[in-house]
Amino acid sequence: MGFNCGIVGLPNVGKSTLFNALTQTAAAEAANYPFCTIEPNTGRVSVPDSRLDELAVLAKSATIIPTQLEFVDIAGLVRGASQGEGLGNKFLGTIREVDAIAHVLRCFEDTEITHVDGDVDPVRDAATVETELMLADLDSLEKRMAALVKKSRGGDIDAKADLALMEKLFAHLSDGKPVRSTDGLTDAETLRLPYLQLLTSKPVLYVCNVAEGDAATGNDYTKLVAEKAASEGAAHVVVSAAIESEIAQLEDDDKAEFLSELGLSETGLSRLIRAGYGLLDLLTFFTVGPKEARAWTVAAGASAPQAAGVIHTDFQRGFIRAETISFADYIACQGESGAKDAGKLRVEGSDYKVVDGDVFHFRFNV
Ligand SMILES: Nc1ncnc2c1ncn2[C@@H]1O[C@H](COP(=O)(O)OP(=O)(O)OP(=O)(O)O)[C@@H](O)[C@H]1O
Ligand SMILES: [Mg+2]
């Protein structure tokens, strides 16, 4: 079970450059012309988590294995995409499959790099992309609502409920607002929403791609994006894709030195990965021993057996119990045996809900 984040934006804004830096490969072709990317590129990225390093030190773990998040580099979209312009529907289908969106906005000046709309204006660009996604959602709702009208007249209760929900969403979109900002939905409607697979219902994070010199400070463009993001309750991250791709190729020691020269305490990529992970309503749990310290991911609300199942399906099938220490207790008691002595090791059953930071031993029988 993996979670992913799609990299979305206008053509030639630096999506593939960012993807390559994230995945530390040159898997995606990045070049100075619009529509360079056609087929989506997919890559898995380690999620940085300092808690994992702290646990590994206490347990003297030989290896550290972070949890992973998948990024998908998607073709650029242009005005009219929802009507089939540019690469049109093809890339919209790819966006439909991702769990969250990292929306890349060009915030760097460079006369050598073509901007499809002539000049740099990230807030306008964000609106251009969002408008296409909203138009595509309106289109898809309209088609489905027509089919549901008949069914709901025939007395189909589910069809009736879906139609009522879609009418609310349609009205909201018609006001020029994305589905994710719809309020006044019932609990049942909120649960149903993801199944409609609407493009603008996915959580969004704005990525300001800046010139090398602005990586630490941001610039006037990123300030405007920050205001926009704040007004929507969305996150934004300032990174320079160009420089991140250089940093990604350095050895760890050189990396730290280079970052401090730039005035950065960590890479923009680390911030971006964590922000992407944060969009997804996920929990991290740990398994820790002398062999390895490892982080794992489950969706919020997962039970202990479901968490066990992320490691191995047998662990879930034969689940007996979970022995659990919270991250805070593990650190405060200087490790597992200290936590045991202090009575901080809990024995939890199959209805236990995972808490972020739990350190688990699963007991199972197959
Ligand atoms: N921060 C930056 N500063 C300067 N140039 C950059 C920066 N980020 C990317 N570029 C350059 O912009 C050009 C386009 O980059 P890239 O191919 O990654 O864009 P893209 O968004 O993937 O485009 P497409 O939608 O066509 O696939 C490349 O020449 C890249 O080197
Ligand atoms: Mg590309």
TrEMBL record:
Domain spans labelled OBG-type G: 3-259
GO cellular component: cytoplasm
Record-linked SUPFAM superfamilies: P-loop containing nucleoside triphosphate hydrolases, TGS-like
GO molecular function: ATP binding; ATP hydrolysis activity; GTP binding; metal ion binding; ribosomal large subunit binding
Keywords: ATP-binding, Magnesium, Metal-binding, Nucleotide-binding
Ranges that cross the membrane: none
Protein residues bound to ATP: 12-17
Co-factor requirement: Mg(2+)
Pfam families for this protein: MMR_HSR1, YchF-GTPase_C
ATP-binding listed as a keyword: yes
Source organism superkingdom: Bacteria
Domain TGS intervals: 281-364
Family: Belongs to the TRAFAC class OBG-HflX-like GTPase superfamily. OBG GTPase family. YchF/OLA1 subfamily.
Function of the molecule: ATPase that binds to both the 70S ribosome and the 50S ribosomal subunit in a nucleotide-independent manner.
Protein name, per record: Ribosome-binding ATPase YchF
Organism of provenance: Puniceispirillum marinum (strain IMCC1322)
The organism's taxonomic lineage, starting at the top: Bacteria, Pseudomonadati, Pseudomonadota, Alphaproteobacteria, Candidatus Puniceispirillales
Originating gene: ychF
